[in-house]
Amino acid sequence: MLKWERSELNFEGASKLEWLETNGLGGYASGTVAGIRTRRYHGLLIAALQPPTQRTLLFANVEERVSDNGRIYTITPHLFRDGTITGWTPPAEFSMDWCPHWRYELPSASIVKRIFMPHMGNSVVVRYFVRPLRPLTLLVRLFVAWRDHHWTMQPVVPFNVKVSRGCFSIHANPHSQTPICHFAHNGDDFRVEGNWWHNFWLPIETERGLDDVESLFCIGTIVKGFDFEGHLDIIASLEPQDVTEVPEIEAREKRRREKIAAKAQGQEMLTILLRATDAYISLRSSTGTRTIIAGYPWFTDWGRDALIALPGLTLVTERFSVAREILLTFARYLSDGMVPNFFPESGEAPAYNTVDATLWFVIALYRYLRYTRDEKILNLLWSQLREIMLYHLHGTRFGIHADPDDGLLVWGASERSQMPNDRSEALTWMDAKVWGKPITQRSGKPVEVNALWCNALAITARLAKQVGDRKTEATAAKWAGIATQNFERVFWNASENCLFDVIAHDGEPDSSVRCNQLLALSLPFQLLKPELEHSVLKRVETELLTFCGLRTLSPKDPKYIGRYAGPQHERDRAYHQGTVWAWWFGPYADAVALVEGNGAVQSKVRPLLENFLLRHFRESCVGQVSEIFDGDEPHEPRGCFAQAWSVSEILRVWVERVEGRLPEPLWDER
After folding, report:
1. What is the residue-averaged pLDDT of the chain?
2. pLDDT over 70 for what percent of the chain?
3. Where are the alpha helices (DSSP H) in 468-605?
4. What is the C-alpha separation between 131 and 138, in angstroms, rounded?
5. Is the pLDDT of residue 359 over 80?
6. How confident is the model at residue 622 (pLDDT cuts 50, 70, 90)?
7. Which helix (H) or strand (E) holds 292?
8. Residue 281 in 3-state DSSP?
9. Does position 549 have pLDDT exceeding 90, yes or no?
10. Between the chain's N and C termini, which has fewer beta carbons within 10 Å?
11. Residue ranges of the domains in the chain?
12. Pairing of strands 492-493, 545-546
């Protein structure tokens, strides 16, 4: 359990400490430990109306007050644009166990608050457990909105509140017959207020150069008196709920989450990581299958992210049926040998704008087979695997094809391209653009794409042999041999003792020292001589490795940007130009294990991950792992406060490499 005492919870610190609840549909609740909202993405019910998309803020916040013999104690504050902060009672304790808990000690009472989202429901439960020393009244004022979670709320036609005993519904305007949100409670009374509150300040949006002020609609206050120990329950949801069922809903949800954490067998750090994984497995309504949310608060599901995160989120955690479902879904949408980077919503076509997601699909399938030995899936996917290889050999979107001279994969600016100006595309994982232009120009032969390509060919050759497809086996083995033989020759940078990042179409190499070259060391099949592997690893550790992940560019490079901050275009410029990414802990740990052995894993990787997690679990979003960090010290967390591949890759290599629980190889891989 993560726990903070009163001495650790000053207002500034508690305002920076965030929490996250999710519901398995892409919906979420989030806020700060202090109770103020500092982002547009903070709210108690952000429902996914078309899971996992159309995320809509409905229930924004509460203001809790305690009335004791005419004296009012305000528990939750508000922050306004002029800097005004309303009254605040610091928590005596905040903890993150199976859900966020607050404990407040007032002169007249001890109050515990819990917030959780039931699984597979667009609802949130807020519970208050009150132990009074003398009679008192708890008043909970409710604020609502109705907006896309990326926007800010501005005053429009007032919401309409329709009240019944113990419940009420919120309508978008006085003439609407369809509620947008339902509330149920076991309070003594609900006092309708029905007015707009203005100028709530969202300071993180100020930092991001975005709209930073919004209005919220106060619907009223739930009132409950306490002469003796008791509780106040509030449930907000898309569908009507019975408040008397809240205790059972809570017990059921707690059991579900404890079952996930039980696989940690009492190891605290592993328990926290396993609990964190639950946030990212979601239903996708358009396909009727499970998917992986890339990150909170602003991402939904992306192909590349899902396939990189799949092993840590589903295989290490033994969610094998989820992994199988995701792989089969991607295969169903295969087109011209490519899996989508975005899935379709109603009436929309899939987007296939990535050069590497399909190769990660092959790696994810390999890892799934290594864990499950599920040979039946090959009968379902073999034709798609063959299609992937053939299209990548002979040509598919964006001019992606194997160079007949060296067997390596190349994309963009060729006669095979379907795009007139491929330099406007950003198809690798380094895909940031500013005003339509990629920041990292990586068309040609990117090093990590070709590490994936060589491994995908080797895997396909062995799977072809397994299913008895001799023709495909011969083709895949031939091209795997050609590409692997040429990989070292093409990418080795002798003057820098590491690998080139990209080879341009004219043969000009990009000698930027980036983390991408680690995939040449960390994947199942060897691509470099051992002495060159050691050299690459040393260079990466010297210039790129930090306590929170790997930099995307060496600080020695004149293009390096050490801080990820400011307006959107400034942040996009820094995104892959030095910013640290936590998910690269995964390839780094794999590289150490394969190049230097288990002893180095225990002496280097284990303390690195332990020190990082012990610190990071207690900053940013508690119990989660952020997307990125500044390249410069002190490496402030940035970007999404909870990122799937950050959590999944750290969990995967902790289990596989640190604890040594990687399943036995399938063939002759390392």
Report:
1. 95
2. 98
3. 470-491, 519-522, 530-543, 568-574, 585-596, 598-600
4. 11
5. yes
6. very high
7. strand 289-292
8. strand
9. yes
10. N
11. 2-258, 280-658
12. unpaired
Structure tokens at 145: 């909105």
Q: Is pLDDT of 175 > 90?
A: no
Q: How far apart are CA 144 and CA 153, in angstroms?
A: 10
pLDDT tens digits for range 591-607: 999 999 999 999 999 99
3-class DSSP assignment, residue 582: helix
Report how far residue 555's alpha carbon sits from residue 630's, in angstroms, rounded to the nearest whole number: 12
Residues above pLDDT 90, as percent of the chain: 93
Whether pLDDT at 421 is above 50: no
CA distance 33 to 622: 10
Task: Give dist(CA 626, CA 645) in Å, integer.
Answer: 10
622 is written with which tokens?
């508690």
Q: What is the pLDDT of residues 556-581, one digit of tens each?
A: 999 999 999 999 999 999 999 999 99
pLDDT band at 415 (very low <50, low <70, confident <90, very high): very low
- Alpha carbon distances (Å) from 114 to 170, 231, 233, 558: 23, 11, 10, 49
Q: How many CB atoms lie within 10 A of CB 265?
A: 8
Checking if the pLDDT of 221 tops 90, the result is yes
Distance of alpha carbon 561 from alpha carbon 564, whole angstroms: 8
Q: What pLDDT digit, counting tens, does each position of 493-517 carry?
A: 999 999 999 999 999 999 999 999 9
- Rounded CA gap, 544 and 394, in Å? 36
Tokens, residue 83: 């800097």
Q: What DSSP state is assigned to residue 350? A: P
- Return the closest-CA partner of residue 656 out of 600, 609, 586: 586
For residue 306, pLDDT over 60 is answered with yes
Q: What is the 3-state secondary structure (H, E, C) of 85-113?
A: ECCCCCCCEEEECCCEEEEEEECCEEEEE
3 state SS of 498: strand
Phi and psi angles of residue 401, each rounded to the nearest 5 degrees, phi first: -165, 165
**235 and 246 Cβ atoms separated by less than 8 Å:** yes
Peptide bond into 634 cis (omega under 30): yes
The separation between the first and the last C-alpha atoms of the chain, rounded to the nearest angstrom, is: 37
Tell me: cis bond preceding 52? Omega within 30 of 0 counts: yes
- Which has the closest alpha carbon to 380: 318, 311, 332, 308? 332
Query: What sign does the CA torsion over 636, 641, 643, 649 have?
Result: positive
Those residues with Cβ within 8 angstroms of residue 459's Cβ, 6 or more apart along the chain or in another chain: 362, 363, 365, 366, 524, 525
Residues 461-476 have pLDDT tens digits of 999 999 999 999 999 9
Fill in the amino acid letter for 196: W
Q: What is the 3-state secondary structure (H, E, C) of 217-234?
A: EEEEEEEEEECCCEEEEE
Q: Give the CATH class of 2-258.
A: mainly beta
* DSSP for residue 151: S
Nearest residue to 340 via CA among 301, 367, 393, 369: 301
The per-residue pLDDT for range 312-349, each reduced to its tens digit, is: 999 999 999 999 999 999 999 999 999 999 876 666 78
Closest to 292 measured CA to CA, from 547, 543, 644, 648: 644
Residue type (1 letter), 50: Q
280-658 CATH fold? Glycosyltransferase (1.50.10)
Note the Cα 140 to chain centre separation in Å: 32
- pLDDT confidence of residue 172: 87
d(CA 61, CA 59): 6
Say how far apart CA 265 and CA 164 lie, in whole Å: 47
* Alpha carbons 362 and 364: distance in angstroms, whole number: 5
Please enumerate in sequence order all residues whose Cβ is within 8 A of that of 579, keeping only pairs 6 or more positions apart, or say none. 551, 552, 561, 564, 628, 629, 630, 631, 638
